[in-house]
Amino acid sequence: MPVILSTLADGFCTFAGLLREHFASIIGGTFALIGAALGARLAKPKPKLYFCIGIDNDDENEVHVSGRRDYDPSGITVSCCNAGEKPAMIQSVELRRRRISFSFMCNTITLNKPKFSFGRELITDIGDNSIVTIKPYSEHIFVMTAGSYWGIQRYCKEKKQRKCYVYAYSVDGKKFKSVLDLDYPFGMELDTAKLMGGE
User: Fold this and answer.
1) What HEC string does the chain produce?
2) What pairing do the DSSP bridges indicate for beta strands 163-170 and 175-181?
3) What is the pTM of this model?
4) How confident is the model at residue 151, as a pLDDT?
5) For the purposes of burial, counting CB atoms within 10 Å of the CB of 91, is it exposed (0-12), middle (13-18) or buried (19 or more)?
6) Which residue of 7, 133, 173, 184 sits 20 to 30 Å from the alpha carbon of 22, by its own alpha carbon?
7) pLDDT digits (tens, 9 = 90+) for 101-123
């Protein structure tokens, strides 16, 4: 029995010595594998979408947007540029604003804590919900309807905002998030209203 214990102790000491000698190599190898896996995942080509607002140069409607129907083109566009190395198949594009709500419940038995909730509330959607393929290093132009234009105009006026969030949803369920600068033309309208004495 003492011989067995002595053999086990010697084996354990030998194993501990080897582990101590090669500990740096084992840790280094582990981190190298993790780094290689992360690098392969990050290096995988994927779409990168950027959005900007502009004017539809092909709009020949002489009626001002205020006199157009909801589904008429507004003359304002949203360009979606794909700066990635993989095409994006976009099914829908939404403009959303940050929403913070506060609720406070109280009854005779308990006094509940106030609750805050955060989210992104829909302002409007753009496009006609048809599937659009945007190739790498190219763009697609969504023409905004008059109804969408009024929705954004109302948002800018009520919230005194010049930016909103853009969410683009692909066919395979991926979500692309960006920020859209609304300074032109909606911010200019706010500035003009201030100069004219409006609110």
Assistant:
1) CHHHHHHHHHHHHHHHHHHHHHHHHHHHHHHHHHHHHHHHHHHCCCCCEEEEEEECCCCCCCCCHHHCCCCCEEEEEEEEEECCCCCEEEEEEEEEEEEEEEECCECCCCECCCEEEEEEEEEEEECCCCCEEECCCEEEEEEEEHHHHHHHHHHHHHHCCCEEEEEEEECCCCEEEEEEECHHHHHHHHHHHHHCCCC
2) antiparallel
3) 0.64
4) 87
5) middle
6) 7
7) 555 554 444 445 555 556 678 88
Show the tokens assigned to 147.
């109804």
In this structure, which amino acid lies at residue 57? N
Exposure on the CB side of residue 60, measured as CA atoms within 13 A:
1
Quote the tokens at residue 59: 């709009």
